[in-house]
Amino acid sequence: MNKAPRTTELLYELVEAEYTWRITELSNYRNAVLEEQNPKVKTAMLRGGVALLYAHWEGFIKGGADLYYEFVTYQDCKLIELNNAFVSIALKGKINDLQTSKRLTANQDIVKLLIDKQHEKAFLPKESPIRTSNLTYDIFQDICTLLGLDIQLFENKVKSIDDDFDRNIEKTINEDLVNRRNTIAHGKYLMVNEEEYKRLYKIFVNKFLLTFKDLVIDAAQRKLYLRTPINNYPPSL
Questions:
Q1: DSSP category for residue 117
Q2: pTM, two decimal places
Q3: DSSP string covering 140-186, please?
Q4: How far apart, in whole angstroms, are the C-alpha atoms of residue 62 and residue 82?
Q5: pLDDT given for residue 88 in this prediction
């Protein structure tokens, strides 16, 4: 039976395991690419390397965020204790009813219900609401909002390793990785040189994935899912 992230210790163990196998595969592939001597084989491997980078970008962000979401569902929080992101998930059905109802009396009943249930245990759907298909900047930003993370930290991380970085992370995610991956995945030819691949690897593997892993654990430890977390945010990573 798979372990459930009921505690921060178990969450850490599961997120680390999710991270480790992906980094191992990415590192092994990168080494094989850089060691390849046949130019035609290397060209194909570089294109495949972009697709693999994207696969683990989407896979780890989805996997890590789902584990964090599941962890929060085990904390048995009251509705009034949760931050706005998790309250919106718990009340999504009622909010939709409020938007679609044309009866003032029905709306009044829904509002009363929401207010009366503030001090009850929050009902969070078992299935994670997180969707990462075609993981663009906007989707990543929504995930960061759910986890209580400051997306600016990821841009700061990129700039800390690349003094010549003249793009924001929105363009880095959307244009440099997602669009390239889509072009390759849809069977169109796109030349990827070794320096471009190494730069993408450095940004997404050495910084984005590592930073996301650390922040997920930090969010759980400091209870950023609560309306009043343990201490001020952001952490100094």
A1: T
A2: 0.87
A3: HHHHHHHHT--THHHHHHHHHH-TT--S-HHHIIIIIIIIHHHHHHT
A4: 22
A5: 84
